Fold:
Amino acid sequence: MKSKIFSNRYVKTELKSQPWIPIFIIIGFMIAFPVTELIYLGRWESSGYTLHQMRILYENLWRDGFVATGMLMTAVAALINGINGFWYLYSGKKIDFYHSLPLNRCQIFCQKFFTGIIFYIFSYIAMAFLTICLGASKSFFSIGLMGSALEMLVFHLLWYALFYFCIVLILCMTGNVLMGILSMGGLLLYGPLLGYLLNGYCIVFYQNYRESYSGIIGAITKYLSPASAAVNFLSQYKKGDNDLLLFAWLFAVAVFVSIAAFFAFEKRQVENVGKALIYRWSEPVIRLMLVIATGLGMGIIIYEMEVGQNRVVWTIAGSVFGMLLIHGLLETFYHFDFRRFFAKKIQFLLSVAFVAFVAFVFGKDLTGYDSYVPSYNRIESVSIDCGELSQYEFYSRIQKGKDGKYIDGGTVGYGNINFQKVKIDEKLYQVLKKIGGEKEQGGIIYNVPVKYHTKSGKDIYRNYRVNSSASRELMELVYRDKGYIDEKYSFLKIDRKYLEYMNLSGEQYDGIAIRETKEFLENLKKDVEEADEKIMMEKPCLMLQYAYEKIPTVEDPDRMIPGENAEFYSGGSVYLYPGFKRTMEFLEKKGYTVSSVREPIKYIDVYYEKEDKENNSVKSIGIRYDDKEQVEQLQSAIMFETLVPSWIEVEESSVYVMQEGREERKYVKLLKESTPDFILEDEKKAKEGYLESNIQ
Structure:
């Protein structure tokens, strides 16, 4: 009998009894592979891509598009085969029929899987072969393409096994259709939702937390659900990194789930059919999982709401109520008896205690997350994103490749996360450790994402919050790395023939074009080569704005322009410092003003902030200073906004300057070191309510 259930005759019998299954799977893979291929080929031809470009796009399609469509169809095939093979477990009569056959449970389990995998593989290989033939007819065939097809087949087979056995496991552990559907939803959604929930706790309670979804939270979010695991596996596969490790991980998880599904099927108690769950031990497990997640979710939602002074009380009450509701509904559903709503009180109290413990751990940082920094000996290197510290600087990290082509390494600047490696030494390590341990900092606060690369290969992410003083201390050490300075001014590597414009902005003008770009760039290159941390920490005197267009780059499927060579645009703005002697002398010689001489000022408006505790708001009080003596004192203390990096300490008040002969005010910063005493006195009066606005 064992040989017969795996014979061609048996497969033919199954095919005749349920022909719609293989037909549906074949049609699905026809859409996933050859139809998708024809759609893309037609689109590329109509868009005017060259044959060379189309070959690159076609190779990428096998690494990207077909993998995604095949993965989706594989999941559908696994769902159909899994439900078709084991749906009878919800019917007592059908179970009796199968148990009357001269087959044991192991043989039935293997036979169901064997039939499903035959339908799947036949459909998959047939449509994949047709896809290769269609590509060959368009002159896109290659030996490497066959390797990609075989690798993709193995990847999809592992994914099929994983998803198939997850479905079988649910069918074997649940006793009715409703519970099966709910369990499938829980399997797909529980991991990501729990990960996002824990991520929310980290955001609320950890000052230095960075949303990287790494470590335990990342593992829960990415791998505790087949759906999220599929997205993550697909992303890794597209990159082509560590394919063997990815396949080994998929294989190990698929084997584990298949063993769990087999034993759940083998030990399944027939007398429990019709109940919510077949195994009684799974009832408290699922209940605790859902009740605890509900308590944590309700707690963080209410904690973040505007609930007045009794914030903690409302949080506890809302969390306990939500847990009680879910606990009672689950118990009622398990036994189909509303009188069981308040049963299992000890389990409910254990859930409440666990949620309270988790909240206490986060609230008091018992894990030491905020202050944790890996030991110096464990750190291989460190990457820092200082884009927010440079304020108005935006620049692309350009790499010069072969054959006169360039690679765009991404934009550094406020709002763009772009880590740059910095040489780590004992001083930089101690500063980072100090910044991570500081909880309260005065003044304007800036975010500094940091990534520690450990020697074990693990990356540890943090998001430090620094003020101007800490920013200066950090940047003085960062700028000791000459490679960091070179990356900041990496646009100097681009050939001048791609230059679109180059402008200067400063206190005297905004966006004046540089005409003598060749000489200017030659001087700037020499200054950048000799620049050190002392020069880079000076007060900037000018802002250089530049743009390069039609820069040739390496061929990338995501950047191709139909019928043209791959190109990209690069623009940005960087500071120019007084220490750039050659550049400053050249600009002065050509008539560009670089000194701090300012036009006459008509008046200066300063806006102070006063906290309105009754209405929980902040009131702005504007004072206009037009007295000549006060204006002169203020003039020596102001610095135009675009020229102020984070490490220069400024007052938090908003300051606007109206210059003689101008129609619009300019926004400026007030330097702390030069702030006149009358400004400090007025600020104090404004906060105490003794000063009213005199600006109409």
